[in-house]
């Protein structure tokens, strides 16, 4: 009595079949397959498993898996996955630590229970505070402007040499020669304008 074993494979290999005795060991199946299909790669590259994914031990008989009366058995021929050096778990933990350390406290794009964005609420609050302090701001600007004018008046008084001049009072101009020259210039301008008007009226 023989048992037919079907091996479902992957591209480019088709489904393989093998007729063996029920007393055949599981570890001997691949060598028997290689005898029938010479183009199969070495056993280090492929392995045989059940459709559930389990791999029986090498001494397990086919009859121990499906019973002595089983005439058809289906198995899988799959490639081996080469393992790395390990340490994948520690890498994940390190990446998680870096991600947790980069958490941001900026939640302006979130919304409150009313559906408003937190950034809008913060902006409205800042604007209300700005409007509430407007009187104090104007008062401070006026005081700064007044202090600047007083400083400028003191500099003008110091530059003129009049140490008795008090800031905020009017200054008297005592240059009589300059005043006389300015009056003459004004009178000459008025005379010239009057002469021009008379000339225009006669023509």
Automatic annotation (TrEMBL):
Mention any one GO cellular component term assigned to this protein in its UniProt record: nucleus
Which is an annotated Pfam family here? Answer: Sde2_N_Ubi_yeast
Pinpoint the SDE2-like domain residues: 83-194
- Localization terms from the record: Cytoplasm; Nucleus
- Supply the name of the protein: Telomere stability and silencing-domain-containing protein
Q: Where is the composition biased (Polar residues)?
A: 99-108
Question: Per its UniProt record, what InterPro entries does this chain match?
Answer: RNA_Proc_DNA_Dmg_Regulator (IPR051421), SDE2-like_dom (IPR053822), Sde2_N (IPR024974)
Q: Which organism is it from?
A: Suillus subaureus
What the record says about family reads: Belongs to the SDE2 family.
Which residue range or ranges hold the Sde2 ubiquitin domain? 3-82
Q: Which domain of life is it from?
A: Eukaryota
**Which Gene Ontology biological process is one annotated for this entry?**
RNA splicing
- Alphabetical keyword list: Cell cycle, Coiled coil, Cytoplasm, mRNA processing, mRNA splicing, Nucleus
Transmembrane stretches, start-end: none
* Coiled-coil region: 130-162
Give positions of region: Disordered. 94-113
User: Which coarse location class describes where this protein primarily resides?
Assistant: cytoplasm
């Amino acid at each position: 009595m023989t048992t037919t074993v079907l091996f479902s494979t992957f591209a480019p290999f088709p489904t393989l079949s093998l007729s063996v005795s029920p007393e055949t060991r599981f570890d001997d199946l691949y060598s028997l397959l290689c005898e029938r299909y010479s183009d199969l790669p070495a056993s280090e590259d492929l392995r045989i498993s059940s459709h559930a994914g389990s791999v029986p031990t090498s001494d397990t008989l086919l009859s121990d898996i499906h019973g002595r009366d089983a005439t058809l058995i289906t198995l899988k021929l799959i490639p081996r996955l080469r393992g790395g050096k390990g340490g994948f778990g520690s890498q994940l933990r390190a990446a998680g630590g870096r991600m947790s350390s980069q958490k941001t406290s900026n939640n302006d794009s979130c919304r409150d229970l009313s559906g408003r964005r937190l950034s809008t609420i913060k902006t409205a609050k800042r604007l209300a505070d700005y409007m509430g302090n407007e009187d104090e701001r104007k008062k401070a600007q006026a005081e700064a402007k007044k202090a600047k004018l007083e400083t400028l008046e003191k500099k003008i008084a110091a530059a003129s040499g009049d140490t008795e001049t008090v800031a905020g009072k009017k200054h008297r101009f005592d240059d009589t020669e300059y005043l006389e020259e300015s009056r003459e210039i004004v009178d000459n301008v008025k005379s010239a304008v009057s002469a021009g008007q008379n000339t225009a009226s006669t023509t």
